[in-house]
């Protein structure tokens, strides 16, 4: 249960902050904020899930195996978090229209389907904890799509499916590109910084005793250091 709470806490942190700001009956505002803030945050956090979790939680009994498990749960929960915000927005719209019955029925159906999928994924397909996260994200996405379809029937012309397809494909491409660039930068820059830092520390540790003991060549090192540092000091 601790792994679920840790993963869900990390997913809901950005979702909770953003949803408290953008859950308004204004679809353009919602889509704009989600496009430029929510999706890139989630794509980056999915790629960096394991190192983030190691920094936040890995200590004492929380070992590397637990970090791997929580990071996998985090990614699976994160897949459903954009749909969670969409669902909350649509529920507010339905209540503003004086229709609370349809959101209630959709939520009841989603809870029932979630329970069935939990049983199937865990007891039949043996997905373990990941199966619970998959079922939660799937039912959240499905309920958001059902609510959107019902709203489209209630208010014809509120959204054009064809017009939404191109931006969605572009957003998906941007998320994938962001994820790959984040992963590449994290691993390559990490190694480059480690090598550069280790080499610099090794050189400094080598020359410090030479200068303290005034060995042959130490004066040349001092002069070279002053020459290199002079432009930096002047700037």
From TrEMBL:
GO cellular component: plasma membrane
InterPro entries according to UniProt: MurJ (IPR004268)
Keyword GTP-binding found: no
Pfam families: MurJ
Membrane topology according to the record: Multi-pass membrane protein
Example GO biological process: regulation of cell shape
Keyword S-adenosyl-L-methionine: no
Compartment list: Cell membrane
Superkingdom, taxonomy of origin: Eukaryota
Keyword field: Cell membrane, Cell shape, Membrane, Peptidoglycan synthesis, Transmembrane, Transmembrane helix
Residue ranges of the TM segments: 6-27, 69-97, 104-126, 132-151, 158-180, 192-213
Descriptive protein name: MATE efflux family protein
Organismal lineage: Eukaryota, Viridiplantae, Streptophyta, Embryophyta, Tracheophyta
